[in-house]
Amino acid sequence: MMCVKKIIIAPDSFKGALTSMQVTDIIAAEFNTAFPDSNIIKMPIADGGEGSVDTIIAAIGGEKYTAEVRSADNRQIIAEYAIANNGSAILEMAQSSGITRQVGLHPMTSTTFGFGQLILAALERGARNFTLCIGGSATTDGGCGMASALGVKFLDEKGNVFIPCGETLNKIVQFDTSNIDKRISECNFTVMCDVDNPLFGERGAAYIYGPQKGATPEQVLELDKGLRHYGEILSGHFGSTFCNIPGAGAAGGLGAGCMAFLKASLISGIDAILELCNFSEHVKDTDLVITGEGKLDEQSLQGKVLSGLMKKANGVPIWSICGVSDLDKTLLSESGMKFFEASEGVSVEESMSSPEKYLKIAVNKAIMAMDAK
Fold it and tell me: Which residues pair with 289 in a beta bridge?
């Protein structure tokens, strides 16, 4: 049997099924039963996407609030945000403009307008330091919706003011920032993002993330063309380019929008959260790190939770309990990581219909693998 005196349980959410806290509790309960004498450290993790507010507030303390905002598909919804004990606002764009907060998929028309409204709500509570967590988006509007909510005016060739979305980015001729909320200039914005993609191109927002937001190949081309045009407009206005900065393409180009209109700095979401959770200290005498996420794929190794853990684990074995894996098994084996799929033997739809049941099955497969050692 594998000797496990100390285990860190540090999963991400299973998007659309379980929060990172729920996943952590389920995995920890099964391991506590199997290894009652082990020290189980529960560390629900997010990388700047869904669950980031809860993870940060759990680490540093604070209070959650709600605001009525516009969803990505233009419905009125209630979104949560938090004010930390140090006075900083913690905002999660997935709460207002996330793919799980809309009905259906709307890759061409989805908007970040509600995220701008969320910023306004936190400004009203006196916040001037902001941590913006921008993963989990439904949008490819370059942050134009957010900017519009904050007072930026976008104009077309006839001088008409409009709120650009993915399909109308190429109609922007110029924009006017003179009416942006004056409090923005008093603020410091830090963006936590979980990807390093540029704004446009083969690794850009449209090509890499458009399909999972519902975009067809033809729509991906249109979105990419719009983002390229938008990038040129930004460069012309501000005199500098944001397009190729790593993370500019995060959240459908919201990364670039935040840098341009909020003067935000971009940081790795997973690195920041692992630091808040004091992971480097916890892992020093740990025997095993258990992580997890809904889908294990190439993105998992490019700025997501798994990649962050692998950088910080100092050789401690990492096992992943995931919904489904699209990663090459040989690649995983070479990395020294084991993985266990909740959907093994059933369809992904079935596993998502009863996520707790199938997650427990996968966890117990991992426990059996430890018994076999």
Answer: 8, 318
pTM exceeds 0.85 for this model: no
Q: Which of 57, 70, 188 is nearest to 123 (CA)?
A: 188
Asked if residue 76 and residue 30 are part of one domain, the reply reads no
Q: Are residues 149 and 247 in the same domain?
A: yes
Looking at residue 140, its amino acid is: T
Between CA 330 and CA 337, with CA 336 as vertex, the angle to 5 degrees is 85
How far is Cα 23 from Cα 176, in angstroms, rounded to an integer? 45
CATH code at 19? 3.40.50.10350
Tokens 């540029």 locate to 198
Residue 1 lies in a domain: no
* pLDDT attached to residue 331: 65
pLDDT of residue 295: 81
**Whether residue 263 has pLDDT greater than 90:** yes
CA distance 141 to 249: 10
Q: Are residues 136 and 255 in the same domain?
A: yes
Domain span at residue 112?
52-269
Residue 264, pLDDT > 90, answer yes
Identify the burial level of 349 via C-beta atoms within 10 angstroms of its C-beta, where 0-12 means exposed, 13-18 middle and 19 or more buried.
exposed
Q: What amino acid occupies position 313?
A: A
Sign, Cα dihedral of 200, 201, 207, 208: negative
Which residues share a beta bridge with 90?
A: 82, 131
N residues, the chain: 373
Distance, in Å, from the CA atom of 222 to the CA atom of 180, rounded to the nearest integer, reads 29
* Gap between the Cα atoms of 102 and 228, Å rounded: 26
User: Which CATH number fits the domain that encloses residue 230?
Assistant: 3.90.1510.10
291 and 350, same domain (yes or no): yes
Q: What is the pLDDT of residues 14-27, one digit of tens each?
A: 877 888 889 999 99
The two three-digit tokens of residue 354, written as one number: 């009863």
